[in-house]
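We were asked to recover a plausible sequence for a given structure. The inputs and outputs are reproduced exactly as logged, with field labels preserved.

PROBLEM: sequence recovery
POSITIONS: 372
GIVEN STRUCTURE:
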């Protein structure tokens, strides 16, 4: 049998290996010059300063902390996401209010967002790499902060503006299946200096080192103090060096992902049993997922057919509130019908930069054989 294709995977080449080994041979393993360099390299892509952290989940936790999310607050959240977008808000003590997505892009529907005096954050997700409609979300955010979970969309733009400059806070993941990788890793980006400073501090135990801000500034040269609890979410130098190297390759990743998506479209567009992803004219996505919809209740059968053929398809995602942890809190099925209908039909075909045309054609042939 042919080798099993994953639905996503990293691309690591000799330039990445060289960047990492150079740091391993140097003086710094954790917080050193490669951290600042990676944050600056990322800022050049996002148009706003960045704080590197240990995962996309850590980035969400940091972002909600920076936004001041706590007990009694509400966070409006898209359900069509990996559970971490909602879980991190719940971990801060907030009540998560799920709002439905748009049928075309599967991103948070501005018309479904209802804020109250308690809403602290409106959290959108750039599903599959397609930016949400941040212009429309700006008009409904009220007094809340707008957060972009951009785990899928680093390198993309909306109306010519880069992902990272579209919301008050943006979070990234650099997990191996994402658009670039540091192994585990993530970042928080914000143009607001106060939010950024709070994010930086939460990443490093909440430690206050600037004497001007300390309560006991005359304690001695060694002194640092904590005003609000934080965690250790520091991304090490070694991984930041990999991140900078991967960012240099992001234009090539973006182009290859677009070419694979186009090849799928050319090979599958005539099949009446499938609905293929589209993009808005305002969006220039980096496609993280190639998320098709399988019509007439045949998603599970196609999933099993492709898996049996050694093709590692995936389903992204079960609506976040279907997880038992939310069901046990009283969230009921039926809450977000557009997201639920999409989940019932969704299938992610393999998509990653090192996928060769012959593999794409093998996937297309296997899908066509299923519908034949
Ligand atoms: C991957 C992902 C996360 C979590 O990122 P990790 O780096 O795996 O912690 C959060 N949100 C979305 C939408 C993701 O795809």
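RECOVERED SEQUENCE:
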């Amino acid at each position: 049998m042919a080798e099993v294709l994953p639905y996503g995977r990293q691309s690591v080449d000799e330039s990445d290996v060289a960047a990492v080994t150079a740091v391993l041979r140097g003086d710094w393993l954790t917080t050193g010059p490669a951290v600042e360099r990676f944050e600056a390299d990322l800022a050049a892509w996002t148009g706003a300063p960045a704080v590197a952290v240990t995962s996309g989940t850590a980035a969400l936790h940091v972002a909600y902390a920076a936004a001041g999310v706590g007990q009694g607050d509400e966070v409006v959240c898209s359900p069509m996401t990996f559970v971490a977008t909602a879980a991190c808000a719940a971990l801060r003590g907030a009540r998560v209010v799920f709002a439905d997505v748009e049928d075309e892009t599967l991103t948070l529907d501005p018309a479904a967002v209802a804020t109250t005096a308690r809403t602290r954050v409106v959290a959108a997700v750039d599903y599959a790499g397609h930016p949400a409609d941040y212009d429309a979300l700006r008009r409904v955010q009220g007094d809340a902060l707008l957060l972009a979970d951009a785990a899928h969309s680093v390198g993309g733009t909306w109306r010519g503006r880069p992902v990272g400059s579209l919301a008050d806070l943006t979070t990234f993941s650099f997990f191996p299946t994402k658009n670039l990788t540091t192994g585990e890793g993530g970042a928080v980006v914000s143009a607001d200096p106060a939010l950024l400073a709070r994010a930086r501090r939460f990443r490093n135990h909440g430690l206050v080192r600037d004497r001007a801000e300390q309560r006991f500034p005359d304690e001695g040269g060694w002194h640092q103090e904590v005003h609000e609890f934080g965690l250790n979410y520091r991304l090490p130098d070694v991984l930041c060096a990999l991140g900078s190297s991967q960012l240099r390759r992001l234009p090539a990743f973006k182009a290859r992902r677009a070419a694979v998506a186009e090849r799928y479209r050319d090979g599958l567009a005539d099949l009446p049993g499938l609905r293929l992803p589209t993009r808005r004219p305002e969006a220039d996505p980096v496609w993280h997922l190639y998320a098709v919809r399988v019509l007439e209740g045949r998603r599970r059968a196609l999933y099993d057919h492709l898996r049996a053929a050694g093709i590692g398809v995936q389903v992204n995602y079960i609506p976040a509130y279907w997880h038992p942890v939310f069901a046990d809190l009283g969230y009921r099925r039926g809450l977000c019908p557009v997201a639920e209908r999409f989940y019932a039909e969704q299938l992610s075909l393999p998509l990653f930069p090192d996928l060769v045309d012959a593999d794409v054609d093998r996937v297309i042939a296997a899908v066509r054989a299923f519908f034949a």
